[in-house]
Amino acid sequence: MYVGVAAHSGEPSVELARVAKRFVELLKDRCGVEHRIVVGGYWGLMKTVVDEALSAGFTVVVLPPVEEEDVSFPDRAVVVKTGLSFRGRSVALVRSSDLLVVLGGGSGCLQEAVTAYTEGKPVYALVSTGYPTDAISQWPEYLDDRRLAPVKKYRDVDELVRDLCLNEHERRKRARAIYG
Predict the structure, then answer these.
(1) What count of other Cβ atoms lies within 10 Å of the Cβ of residue 175?
(2) Which InterPro entries match (predicted)?
């Protein structure tokens, strides 16, 4: 499973950094480290996620925008220099992921959430962060009548990860039943 993570590009609050660390810890404990974490850069809250995920043993894929491809990345991260702008890179991040977790951020994270929905990828959004993505709490579960993928909202990262891992387990179980 490729877990896309939409995260604030600026310096995170102490609380949001703590939540991001807890997210990685819970994902490891409840889902295992065989999954991959996909992010759009290595600064701000994304850097916290990358560092914690690498430390926990996850494979991390970083898709930086062309404007930030010269950033120094951790040696163990898989860096894919797509040549895309910030917005284009967001689309690549979502399309490369099986689902999107929104940990808190601004307009880029909101774009990634809408893109995930339109690409049929489930969105797991933390909506108690104090960041603009908290507006997702007001979104319906399905953004239009196509019902492409659910937009799930959480005030607690423990609940978010529990549901994410449970839903992924059920999806894999259904796939094994169908494909053997």
Answers:
(1) 10
(2) LDcluster4
**Bridge partner list, 2:** 36
Least Cα distance to 17 among 108, 107, 90, 103 occurs for 103
DSSP summary character for residue 104? E
Question: What is the spatial distance between Cα 28 and Cα 148, in angstroms, rounded to a whole number?
Answer: 28
**Closest by CA position to 96, among listed 143, 38, 178, 155:** 38
Q: What is the pLDDT of residues 38-66, one digit of tens each?
A: 999 999 999 999 999 999 999 999 999 99
Other CB atoms within a 10 A radius of the CB of residue 26 amount to: 18
Domain that holds residue 175: 2-179
pTM above 0.85, yes or no: yes
In DSSP terms, 99 is beta-bridged to 3
Read off the pLDDT band of 172 (50, 70, 90): low
Q: Total domain count for the chain?
A: 1
- Backbone dihedral angles phi then psi of residue 100, each to the nearest 5 degrees: -125, 130
